[in-house]
Design goal:
With 174 residues, the chain is of the alpha/beta class. Helix content is 41%, strand content 16%. The chain contains 8 helices and 8 strands. Strand 4, helix 3 and strand 5 form a beta-alpha-beta unit. It is globular. The N and C termini lie far apart (39 Å). The model has no long low-confidence stretch (mean pLDDT 95).
């Protein structure tokens, strides 16, 4: 059996769900029915650092949401699939677009809708709030919660496993 670091060493593409992973899972509505979400700034910097090492980024989300599209563009996410009802089909399309295979991928998920992707990628990750069934299919469960550092934790795990962490943060230590 391999360690999470061994799986992380091979990651070329980090794929994420949004609600419950990049956010805390709560959706806020104003009086006009417009929704908003809260994203954790340290997760964003972790994604930018990871991307600077050559690892590509993707989102596969069951919900189509303008604020997620905006966040995706702001972070320079390489591939965005929103409003997806079948995440397995989205993964197939992502593999075609990226030229990679599921063996090159990590995925962070939090609910049963994520199982088709979690079960196919080499490095499936779940957040602590994920149901037990989802956690059973993960090779790593983050210590941090979704929307509160789980994404950053996985980014740093990948960089440390690949030996790129020190280089990625060097400019902040100069």
């Amino acid at each position: 059996m391999h360690t999470p670091q061994e799986y992380a060493r091979r990651v070329k593409l980090l794929i994420m769900d949004v609600d419950g992973v990049m956010t805390d899972g709560r959706i806020y509505y104003n009086a006009q029915g417009e929704e908003s979400k809260s994203f954790y700034v340290q997760d964003g910097l972790g994604l930018k650092l990871l991307q600077s090492t050559g690892v590509r980024l993707a989102i596969i989300s069951g919900r189509a949401d303008a604020c997620v599209e905006h966040r995706s563009r702001a972070l320079g996410i390489d591939f965005y699939f929103g409003g997806v009802s079948n995440k397995q089909l989205a993964l197939d399309e992502l593999m075609q677009q990226s030229g990679l295979s599921p063996d090159d991928c990590a995925f962070i998920g939090d609910d049963v809708i994520d199982l088709p992707v979690l079960r196919r990628v080499a490095f499936p990750v779940a957040v602590p709030a994920a149901p037990a069934l989802v956690q059973q299919h993960a090779r790593y469960i983050t210590g941090a919660s979704g929307g509160l550092g789980a994404v950053r934790e996985v980014c740093e795990l990948i960089m440390q496993a690949q030996g790129t962490f020190d280089t990625a943060i060097a400019k902040y230590l100069a």
